């Protein structure tokens, strides 16, 4: 009959698929039990401590803990059935075993020390990270202050928050001196004394003029009142509502007429990438290019090789070296070929 009767579905396999589909509902619980059994069985000392717990709880069972095969439902059932009988032993197991793994503990201690070396104290953290969050109109200092308090505690968080604000104001003052209008003292002719002899007292006019010029110089050195208050104005305004399609760069572009100096600061700060290639990578690349077989390359040639290699990797479309040679001439042939080989 052309082999129509040869194909019979495996009932055991179908049953396994059905049960496995049902076990997905309690998958996290089964995973925890499996890890618990694996932890006890992976060490002879833990197994002995577990047997002490079994004896203490006076549990009588001929079976011992067995690890299941996740793809076979019947082995999972046997594992759960056995574990259930030793439930009280697992509750007491914590008294005999503190779950300390000396190897992992040593490894974690080294990693923690490395973490503390760079991030242990807030002083080691670049304040530009917090300033970038302040320049997000959805956050400002309201969010940063709360986050610092949650991260470092109320007392330390307030101290760091004060330092971040002072750092931001110092940074803003530099931008005011660079981009602000009237950053240099330029006395106008209207500030000069009236030579018409209108009857104003000479001593009074000189003292008043001197005071006004001094006050104006201070204002101009620190920026005009309007420019200086840009940061305060920005911080006092309400936060922007949260939105998935919020574009922070577009927001600063639209609001740059209101914050001409602060928008320059935001543009520079927000342009800083959150991560970059480690500096060691550049040295490693240089070492691969300037190896013992290429020790006679000039510094300019090495620099060109590194740049060309970076450009080749960043191109979205594949670069045809032959076409590049024809269009650019043969002068750069050595550099391009070396970069491709590197």
From TrEMBL:
InterPro entries: hAT-like_transposase_RNase-H, HATC_C_dom, RNaseH-like_sf. GO terms for molecular function: DNA binding; protein dimerization activity. Residues 180-204 are annotated as: Disordered. Transmembrane segments: none annotated. Residues 98-175 form the hAT-like transposase RNase-H fold domain. Residues 230-312 form the HAT C-terminal dimerisation domain. This is HAT C-terminal dimerisation domain-containing protein. It comes from Solanum lycopersicum.
